[in-house]
Each structure stands twice: as C-alpha cells, then as structure tokens.
Amino acid sequence: MRNSRRTRWAAASVLLAGALTLAACSGSSQSSGPSSAKPVSGGSVTFATAFPQTWMLPIWNVGTGIANADTLQSWLPLYWFGENGKAQVNYALSIGKPPVYSNGGKTVTISLNPEYKWSNGQPVTTRDIQFYINVLTASDKAYPQNWIGYSASGFPFNVTSIKYESATQFSITFSKAYNHYWLLYNELSQIYPFPTYAWDKTSESGPVGSYDLTPAGALKVINFLNSRSKDLAAWNTDPLWQAVDGPYKLKSYAPASGVQAFVRNARYTGVDPGHIDSYTLQPFTSAQTEVSALLAGNSITYGYLPLTDLQVASRLQGMGYTIAAWPIFGFAQLPLNLTNPQVGPIFQQLYVRQAMQHLINQNILVQEAFHGYAVPTYGPVPTAVPNPFADSYERHNPYPYSPSAARQLLTSHGWSVPRSSVATCAKPGTGAGECGKGISQGARLSFNFLYASGVPTVNEEAAALQTDFSLAGIQLNLSSAPIDTLFSTEVACDPQTGANCKWQMIDTGQGWVYSAPQFAPTGESLFLTGAGSNSYSYSDPKADALINATLTRSGLSAMQAYEDYLAQQLPTLWLPWQVNQVSVISDKLHGALPQDPYQQIYPQFWWLSS
C-alpha cells in the first residue's frame, strides 16, 4: 500500500480552503444547497482556494505538495469514495462495478461500467487500466522515494497475476486474502484508467504506441508524463491534458497567479453531464484578500472564512451567502516522543498518558479555541463524519476531563503531586505503586512543548493545555516555531545515532486525513512499529497484531478491536479535530451541500439561479 493521500493538513486560522480534489465525475447528485428548485443550465462559478495547483498527473508524487494531494482534473478513478457527506465508497460515481471475490478471497474480478468514454469518443476499457498499472509499477520500482508512504509489500507488489479478460472485465490475484474493506478502500482505490490513446508515448513529438507493455518502455512513458505534469507553462496548450473522461476539462491556466478555468466536456457520456458552463479555481495570496473579495460581493461564488474573521459571518449572510462547516475524515493528535532519552521513559507509562488525556478539556477547546468548528477526538478512527468504521466505544470519551482523576493516577503510581509545583517521582521502581521502568528518584513531570507559531487556534490550545496540565503537577515549557521547523523536527528518534531525539511534545496544529488513494482508517501507516509516519516511535506487539488483522480478517470486527484498543492505549494524545473550512456559499449556487468528507468538490452537480 502507499500512503500518498493520508495527507496531514494544518488546523490554522486560514482554514484548509483549496486543499481539495476536483471530483469531475458522473452519477448520483449531491443534495441541493439553499434551494431545491429544478436545476437549470448555464453560468460560471468561482471557487476560492488558498493554494494554487502545481501538478497535473493523477499519480501522487512527493513533490506535489499540500495543494496537489490528488488530481486537479477530470480523470475518474476506478472507484469513487464519498457519498452525500459520508466517508464510504460511492458505486454510483465509480467506473468499476462492485468487486467480486473468489479463490478464497485472493482473486477479485472487476467489471467496468460501459458508458464511460474518453473525450475522443473511445470507451474507457481495461487496456486503460493495464496502462496505468504498468506505468505505476515501473515508477514505483524506479523511484520508490518519490511516492509518499511507499511500501514494497503493497499494491502493485502484492499482486501475483492480472488477467484482462475483456474490454470491460479484468481480475487481480493477490498474494493472500485481504479484508474486503481494506482491499477496496486502500488498494483498488489507487487505480485510475489512463487514456492509452493519448498518453502511451515517450516524447512530445513521438507517436503513441504500446511502450508500457515492457518495463523499460513503461518507465520512459511515466518519465515523460511526469515531465509534462511539472511544466505548468505548457498546461494550456499540451494536448495530453485534454484527454479526459469526466464532465469538465481545463480551458486555461495562468502560471503566475494559479487561476484555472474549466469548461464542460462536450463529449462526456456519463450519467450527469453537468449544469454550469464553467468554473474557475481562484487562489488568493492571503486569507485577508479572500475575505475582502467576499465582502465586495461580486467575484466569489464559493469561498471560505477563517476562524479569525467569523465576526463578518452575519454580514455575509445578509449579502446572500450561506455559512456551512466542512467536516472531513480525519483526527487531531498531540505527539509525544516516546524514545526521548530524558522523558521518553515517562511518556512510555500508560498511566502518564492517561493522566495527560484526562487533562485535555476537549469540549472547552472546541468552543473557545475553535469557536464550535471542531469535534473532540477519542481514538484513531474519525467520528466527525458518518462512516462505516467508527464504533460506539470510540464515540464516547474514555478519558473525560478530570484533573482529580489525573492526580489520582499519578499519586497511585508513586508521584508526589504538590498543589502548586511540579510533580516528582517519590517511589522509583517497577512494582505496584511505583513510577515505572527507567524513571529515577526525583524525576519531574516537566516537558518541553513546541507549537506552531502564528496560528491563533494553536496558540490558544497550547496556553489552555499549559494551564490544565498544571492542575496535576505537569509543567509544559512552551515555545513556538514556524510550521516548517516543526515538520522537520517531528521525526522518529533514532536511539542508535541520537538523531531526531531531542523533541518532547509537538503541537503542529496538524491532523491526519484519510483520503485518496487510501480511504480506510487502518493504522499500518501511523501506529505499526516502525511505520513511516510513526514519529512518536510507538511500539506495542498487541497493537501490531490488531493492525495487521485489519488488513486480512473479514468484516469490521478487527477494525473495531484495533480502534478500541488504541483509544484506550493512547499511542498519541487526542485533540479536537477542526473542520476543513468554514465555507461561504452564494445562495445562488445549488447542489453544493453536503460537502465531501474527503475534501472533494462536485462541480457537475452545481447549478445557478438568478
């Protein structure tokens, strides 16, 4: 599996506007926005973004950055995820029909919906699936470092054979039987049909061929496509990017400003051809300029409002805008460096992490730091949006705010907890009622807490945590730094060399987003021993076994066992999860709600009234 779209997004005062996927796909309509009148055709929509797009090809490259976590164009995946605000597969919008399993679960057979065609009129076929898999495999083998969260044990390297039985049916046999949810949401979700008729070439002037059918040829093809994807100045004229299978395609792109205009694909043959004639992605250099444009009232159809500017919400409503929170499928966390040589042994004690979690008043943080635009986090499976994975246990707080409970946990494990100073270890040792392994006499519950500078929500959160932790004798020594510094600091400690071991607690204002091409909230990328994104160095044999079971055991029972155990064990501390953005939607725009839990927009369902 790859972790290319389990992207982390900053919970900043400038919310996550513009970090999105353009869901130019067909099928069942989203619910109506401010009106349920009959859709009409025509008009143009301007969608405000916080970042310009700088990558075209729908393969997830390390270099694409925050704004380019997924394709920005009209290339449809084999399976679409996100359905009327729910974090689940959407077969009505998928090119592939529901997969059929055989051979003890090792083989999956997939039939394509025949109505999909490319913009030259040719049907989307299994040859386009084959083309994609061939160039993906070549790229993964040659440049594993280019793909975020690359794994040699995941797709396509866990495949033993692929049979392309007809133009509309193919089957994949995997090395073992996987959990059907995991296989669909995290592996088959990676597959995109690529337009073989236009993209199977190795140079601009060279002819289209069948180069992908050999590994060497496939590598030349993906190298060429990557080079064209990075050439922003050529996007307007490059015929590669006009070969699409969705309802809208690129009309123009301004490299200097990042403004992109899309128009309807006249040769689209899917279920819903779209209603508006065009839409524009309008990046803004700052949140302030975007808010000013909103208040001017004549340029933005679909914008965003930072939490620091909520005071103008009523004014915008009076101008004919709807204010709507946009929740997404993720969670927020406060990482602890479990292998820090000074305080790691303290963090490794479960009772210490439990005491800390009891001191995080998430309900108050939601109201005061996030002004109601957040939800509490109680475990590794998100609960902010409806989904089939979260169970009842994780929807209820196992560690409610209670300074007295935190103090009791510490004192019952050998700590002296004065009312107005830092707690110290009074009973070192590993027996009952003692501080625990590696904790010496007089060790202090005093920790260096680094947080993101210039982010009002994080500033408020850090100050509140410092105050609440002190109620149980835990001292947080606050300091701030730019977010990029925090990113480079929050790296797993290497005890052998001492590299990356100095940090203790970091609040980046970050959350973990489950998104394309991995949509199932399993923990193999985050909490498995040695996982690439396990910056806290969490290691628990039982957790490892439960995580591995989510990949292979049938049904959702393994997922629920995993999520409940980690909710109890606290591999990281849980923090409130902020919404993706506070959307500002013109009352003339319909079909925009509910907003998608995977950060996608659906312009083919939008329509404008006068």
Keywords:
14 helices, four-stranded antiparallel beta sheet, four-stranded mixed beta sheet, about 600 residues, alpha+beta, 28 strands
Write down the overall geometry.
Answer: globular
Structural class: alpha+beta
Distance between the termini: 47 Å
Q: Mean pLDDT, rounded to whole units?
A: 90
Biggest sheet: strands, sense, closure? 4 strands, antiparallel
Task: Report on this structure.
This protein is of the alpha+beta class. The protein contains 14 helices and 28 strands. The model is unreliable at 1-35 and 64-71 (pLDDT under 50).
Q: Could you write a compact summary of the structure shown?
A:
By secondary structure, the chain is an alpha+beta fold.
